Amino acid sequence: MTFQQIKYVMEIAECGSINKATQKLFIAQPYLSSKLKELENEIGITLFTRSNKGVFLTEAGKEFLSYAKPLYEQREKLLEMYSGETREYPLRFSISSQRYPFIVQAFLNFYHDKNLDQYEFCMKETGMYEVIDDVFERKSEIGIIFISDMSKKFIGRVLEWKGIEFEELKSITPCVFFKKDHPMASKKVIKIEEMAPYPYVVFEREKGAAIDYAEEIALHDFKHSGKRIIVADRATMYNILSHTEGFSIGSGILPAGYAIENLCSAPIANHDGEMKLGWIKLKNSPISEEMAEFLEHIKKLL
Q: Where are the beta strands (DSSP E) in 156-297?
């Protein structure tokens, strides 16, 4: 087995087509097919199933790639770090987070405090599934996620299996958030059932991710309301909420200057403290001094 063969498997899985993978890799299809067959013969499993809709990883293929992909990416990272062209930064770290504006605020507070001439920061906003994977694959030193009473059993098993630990920052009462002139905006507390007539705006989940990975805390079944708007990023979410009677569910923390000014939030009745906001890291992997400072900035905002 070679790293090149692993790359081929990654590209085929990403494209869902051997033909499309050959175009990205700039190689001939017979060559790619032969290399795939050689790998399958060597490891004794079938990696892909083929249909008229394309090629898909088998269960064995998914398991193989879950081990092989991190190895390939770590190799690429090592080559980058130790090549002659690599720049040495006095400070570099990477964070993955679910889509929370106060995390951006904490990061910028940290950034202004450090006042360095050279640095490399990577801050990534994405869904919970990918946050966990980023930490597992060492792409990010820490991840910021929430766990609810409903999801803690499932997510807890996932974290345990991946050797990741969760450290709670704060228990938060979930809130509905919407525009300031929304018909429900005058209410101090919201009963979640009262939101059923309005469009429910949610972030899309990664392909195949369970409901437990949802960005919005699951308190009520809105699947059959007939009014759902699915978005991929926070800016789109805020714009839709600002110009419709839509709503979403989350922490309700909307810091001035980091969220659209005409949004507001109200706590949901009978669900006190059900959101456990926290950070994750690999077990037995200490965080850097700078990352500890960043976490302190988050705590100050909470």
A: 164-172, 175-179, 200-203, 228-231, 248-250, 263-267, 275-282
